[in-house]
Amino acid sequence: MAYYAALTSFPYQSQKRFCFSRIRASSSSSAATGRFDLKTLESAIAKKDSNAVKEALYQLSEVGWAKRWSSQPYVSRRTTTLRELTLLGIKNAENLAIPSVRNDAAFLFTVVGITGFLGVLAGQLPGDWGFFTPYLIGSISLVVLAVGSTSPGLLQAAIQGFSSFFPDYQERVARHEAAHFLLAYLLGLPILGYSLDIGKENVNLIDERLEKLIYSGQLDAKELDRLAVVAMAGLAAEGLQYDKVVGQSADLFSLQRFINRTKPPLSQDQQQNLTRWAVLFAATLIKNNKAIHEALMAAMSKKATILECIEAIENAA
After folding, report:
1. Closest to 271 in 3D by CA, of 212, 228, 213, 226
2. Roughly how many angstroms between the first and final C-alpha of the chain, as a whole number?
3. In this structure, is the dihedral angle defined by the CA atoms of residues 166, 178, 281 and 99, taken in order, positive or negative?
4. Is 300 helix (H, G, I), strand (E, B) or coil?
5. How many CB atoms lie within 10 A of CB 33?
6. Helix, strand, or coil (residue 21)
7. What is the pLDDT of residues 64-105, one digit of tens each?
8. Contact predicate 6/204, CB 8 Å
């Protein structure tokens, strides 16, 4: 599953700067929560201006509303062991980095099983039909394997569509993407879009300053740690809930991309420790904010707007 795709691409946008007047209390605005006017934040989100969104949230925090925005601004990497992940509640911590083949295997077994069954039935047809038809049906499996070898993207699209039939699919996707959204918010990184649609699952994080650091290959350890925690959030959320993580491939790819853009470069041991620590830190925040995470999951499952998602975070018990 292509979780977190938007963060890995960091779509560059030339965004306008906005001058903000002080946010004032209001009870008449349709975009207000209680006495806090959210019109400025709503406008900034609509214009996809990350700087304006951050400014609006910081001002709302100052007047007492966005209390959870950037409430975890400081992260500090340390040596982390697999045992710590297990003690925290991560299931099968030793296998977190191994890409899941559950959906691929289920799809291929289904194709082979169905074509095999149909081939046996077709063998009962009279005359030449009973001779040639089973071969034609059997060739479907070979075609699927050939497509997977030559155009894996096409096969992946079919597998993603097939995976939606798993009973836990929608809940798993919502849990995964909500974790990315929530931790980015807690760390002070603006989210300007998301999708839970099949094949388009992502959380769209846009930050102009980080964008420039990534493209120039100048990420420092502090920024890498923040991005690593957000990147591993979905994996951590799945690991806390399920025996097997399914959506880790794109997350790990994102993390590796950030590592490759960091100076000074990290050794293999440092990269491994960063991954473990980021999963541990993310899982700890998710456990400590379980009610907020679940409220955000519910909002995102209902296709709530970004502002409504932020309200879900701030208003959760």
Report:
1. 228
2. 31
3. positive
4. helix
5. 15
6. coil
7. 999 999 999 889 899 999 999 999 999 888 888 776 555 555
8. yes
